[in-house]
Amino acid sequence: MSKHVHDLDATTFQPFVDSHDVVLLAILMLPQSEKSRDLVPVLSSMAESSTEPTVVFAQLNVNDSWDAVASFGITTFPQLVLFRGWSDWRVYKGVFGPTSIIAYLGRFLQFPVITAVDAATLEAFKSGANSDVVVVGYTTAPDADSTASSRFQNVAKALYPEFVFGETHDLALARAEGVIDGPALVVYNNATGERSTFLLTSTTDQRELEGNVRKAALPLVVDLYPEIHDALLDLGTPFAYTFTPTATSSPPHLPTDDLSSLARKYRGKIQFSTAPISRVPAIALDMHLASTPLPAFGIREPASNLRYPMLSPSPEISFTVSVEEFVHDFLANTLQPTIKSEPIPFPSPSSPSALVKVVGATYHAIVDDPNRDVLLTVCIEQCAPCARLYPVLEELAEMYAEREREGNGGETKTTVATVLYDLNDTGLRGIRAFPTILLFRAGAKGQKKAVRFLGERTVEMLSGFIEREREEGSGA
User: Which CATH number do you get for residue 143?
Assistant: First the structure.
């Protein structure tokens, strides 16, 4: 550890934060997490080169301080958290590299949550805010909603200092910037030259607004890193990957200008990205492209988590043309996803079991069944806690099957199932702990939401969880 990075524990954590103006804290899981180990020298380098007298750098090993971290709702590691006092904190959501982190820290130190702008300062603010993206709220406009300013402020508080925010109440300035249908926020993406306007109405959902800002702020082609992957998929736009050769590879590289042109053409329909495969090997493997000649291309549909790898580009046309044809076919719904799956299991008369084994080929048919509650336990092949849980699940499954045979299961039936996450593609993303138990309540296809079970893994606790969630879902 660098002498410039303070090593905290559960006892010193809060007093240290309270006694310094600004603390950039790395919450690590050591020694287990490779990503945590990789972040240590990055934090040390920034701490040693920092010229900001008000900022101190620290690290906390979650293995020694779990209770101290749990109150912040942080469950995945590593994380960078920026503190300005114990109650004012935010989780950094960018790339774990010094350039991105320093830019984020610079915006935090240079700008308040919202900067007041007017006709004289707007252009300088948009171009000189040390950010590729600037968001301005125009909260006085025809038929102005009295809550528009507070709605904008809520968005700014949630996304600052990821982006820089300004606000004006100048009606003439709003009109000059094209805001004519009511109060709105405008995302100025200086990197792409785009301007995106989102109305601030009384019915506007804040999470939707935040998602729209993040989507409008993206570059045409994202430089992909593992730590930002899940957040990009959470935006909901079909996501295209271009995996390029490593530094020691010799296959032809994809022309960057051609990829940017495609990304601009399909902006809003598909979000393009690129990365050397050596940086994101797990993502390439998950997309079924780990052994494909490079460069390689594929598309993921985030809602269903279905993968569409371009496995056989034509050797007679350029890679760029192959990609455009593939994108066209994807948007026309003429492609079939590639699904990693174990063989579909068939019931065994000699050893019948009510516990359903889900595989990639049957995942959506079983889990998305609109007429059944589905308790799905997500396991991996080599997992001792998973193996110990199977007898409990067998008993639980038999209990619900018996109720159904006797006609006592009520209107909603229950399926108890398991899936091996490492051997099958599923509609799930970001599962990192095994076993993970999820309940999908009966509901319309595509609208079933997973509720995670956290408790003692017994038949009584699991059945109680199912019944309790069923009652809440029915509004009883």
Answer: 3.40.30.10
